[in-house]
Specification:
58% helix, DNA-binding, homodimer, 172 residues, Arc Repressor Mutant, subunit A, 7% strand, mainly alpha
DNA sequence: GCCAGATAGGAGGTATACTCCATATCTTGG
DNA sequence: CCAAGATATGGAGTATACCTCCTATCTGGC
């Protein structure tokens, strides 16, 4: 899984001969929000590599994963389930529908709702791409010592659960 | 460590009466990439709260922080320094320029380059908003037991450095 | 000196992730 | 029953974060 290219060895601000001020360097690397943004970008990059065939994105796969379990969900419930904003979710669903991976129908019970249903093609794709998704997850965590991974996941879950209301897309 | 707030308890898929399938629930919450995306969203939300006055974003503040230390940087070096793609960086710089926080000039030595320089207004703003930035960082980490925070930061740095080349915006 | 390749930037396209405002539909209090 | 509030969606606008293709400029080998 991914031979480390160490020449790329990424710390910022080791700029071209300008004697990259160590103070500033340490500064960015001591901001958790900054590091989380960077790690998120890396995950998106790893995911894109693993899903290069399909062009599918992490959020699209998350939505399809959820839909593979639930028969039908309205757009709002689905968006909450994957932790995205309602309008972002609607956009993602639109793109999934364009690829015929889901179908949207008006709910007969509540005509405000659009029910989203996964198609057979969508269900097949979720199943087929699951190893690719797991590879992206594994590669992300690979640099951590195995015994540290559980701790890291627990830390993430703690921070998310406690700060959930601060997010613009609080989950349910 | 960290009393779980179970009322906010943002777990997905505890949907309206549809008996939120625990299997699926556990699934998303066991994907580190998913959790990192969620935590990133939360940080952006916290940051937006702390910077409500100015409307400044995390990336904009990171860029200004870097510029406050270096006299002048071309757009590519600046983008690499904050770990964003060249074209994303150019967009951010454009918005900073629109608010008169930076100025762009053609480099006399290499006329391909546009040098970005922070203005006095920009430098003042960085200094003034630093407590807000630090508040956002603190709030993000607050749910972790203090003794766990260093571990978490180290884990982030490990994963970022080792996976840096996989990111679409590898840092210098 | 000149041409080939590298580099910096810009333009246009896509995806996520929000904002606010508008519209349609449902639900509930009086 | 009906009007008021809540809810589900849609549309327009903004910001980050990529992509590809293109032009301008610099650098190195000959």
């Amino acid at each position: 899984m991914s031979e480390r290219i160490e020449s790329a060895g990424g710390k910022p601000l080791l700029l071209n001969g300008m004697e990259g001020d160590e103070k500033q360097h340490d500064d960015l690397w001591n901001r958790p929000g900054y590091l989380v943004r960077r790690l998120h970008q890396i995950h998106v990059g790893l995911f894109a590599e693993e899903f290069a065939d399909t062009g599918m994105t992490p959020v699209q796969y998350a939505m399809l994963s959820v839909l593979a379990v639930h028969n039908a969900l309205d757009q709002l419930s689905l968006s909450k389930a994957v932790g995205v904003d309602r309008t972002s979710g609607a956009d993602v669903i639109k793109r999934l529908a364009r690829q015929d991976l889901v179908v949207r129908t008006k709910s007969p019970e509540d005509r405000r709702m659009k029910l989203v249903v996964i198609t057979p093609a969508g269900a097949t794709l979720v199943r087929q791409m699951r190893p690719a998704m797991e590879a992206a997850q594994s590669r992300l965590m690979a640099p951590l010592a195995p015994e540290d991974r559980k701790f890291f996941m627990d830390a993430l879950r703690q921070m998310i659960e406690a700060n959930n209301s601060a997010s613009r897309a609080p989950m349910s």
